Amino acid sequence: MYVHGGSFCTESAFCRTYNNYARSLAARAGALVVSVEYRLAPEHPVPAAYDDAWAALQWVASLSDPWISNYADPGRMFLAGDSAGGNVVYNTAVRAASGGGTGNHIDVEGLVIVHPYFWGVERLSSSELVWDGVAMLTPELIDRVWPFVTAGRLGNDDPFVNPIDEKIASLTCRRVLVAVAEKDSLRDRGRRLAARLRDCCALADDENAVTVVESEGEDHGFHLYNPLRATSKALMETIVQFINQRTALPLPAALLPELHELHACG
């Protein structure tokens, strides 16, 4: 299940950028991809995006759609997203671990969090202090985004955007990939989350459960707007390998129906 980025207030699952990316991910990984269209701020302030992602995950897990029930493997559910979408899928995984208040736990194999939007009141390092005039997202801009998309109800210290150890420790997924970009002002927030994942939750028992990949010389979201760049291809290959760790090679999408038929016969 893929959740698009856009600072909680722009972009769409149907826009060319994200539709192309979801199609490319499905083809490269040999996976069935559900791309989520969630309500955007400011017309629909956060937590509307979280509620929509949770509803989408419940729908996927219900296997009520014939295509999903016939071709998806519910034992290998991945939640993926970039930027704001990375934030949304992290919080969705936290919600899934507890059953979202319904008591119905949803099993998640792994998280793929690309250039995730996490922030806080304090600055972590020079990446959040110094802007050389070319960064896509400046710290000053990021400071204003969260209060705007929450209609002023939540500050930058809120657990939705500044994860706390209690929530991190509750995660029950088995693997996490965190991708950051060297020139991204959000870089060290992603690094920090990965470090805390290694320390705070069940993933700490497996030294290979948390993977961090950094794209040198790149800024926030570069892979979406320059998909043919070498660094974009490398990031896609890393994500594909992460998803397909159980298989020797990524499976062509065209083979999935036949493979599922064989599995059903077996």
Low-confidence stretches: 247-266
Task: Specify the structural class.
Answer: alpha/beta
Please state roughly what percent of the residues sit in beta strands, choosing from under 5%, 5-15%, 15-25%, 25-35%, 35-45% or over 45%: 5-15%
What is the overall shape?
A: globular
Estimated radius of gyration: 18 Å
SSE run: EHEHHEHEHHEHEHHH
Tell me the CATH architecture. 3-Layer(aba) Sandwich
Instruction: Compute the number of strand runs.
Output: 6
Give me the CATH superfamily: Alpha/Beta hydrolase fold, catalytic domain
Using the coordinates above, name the CATH class.
Alpha Beta
How do the strands line up in the largest sheet? 2-1-3-4-5-6
Report the biggest beta sheet as strand number plus sense, adding barrel if it closes.
Answer: 6 strands, parallel
- Overall number of domains: 1
First-to-last CA distance: 27 Å
**Tally of DSSP helical segments:** 10
Q: What is the CATH topology assignment?
A: Rossmann fold
Share in helix: 40-55%
How would you describe this protein?
This is Alpha/beta hydrolase fold-3 domain-containing protein. Pfam families: Abhydrolase_3. Residues 1-223 form the Alpha/beta hydrolase fold-3 domain. The structure is a single chain. The protein is an alpha/beta fold. It has a single domain, classed as 3-Layer(aba) Sandwich (Rossmann fold), CATH 3.40.50. It contains 10 helices and 6 strands; from the N terminus they run βαβααβαβααβαβααα. It has helices spanning 16-29, 48-62, 66-71, 84-98, 139-149, 165-169, 187-200, 222-225, 230-243, 256-265, and strands spanning 2-3, 35-36, 78-82, 110-114, 175-181, 210-215. Strand 3, helix 4 (84-98) and strand 4 form a beta-alpha-beta unit. Helix 2 packs across helix 4. The longest helix is centred in the first third of the chain and has 15 residues, at 48-62.
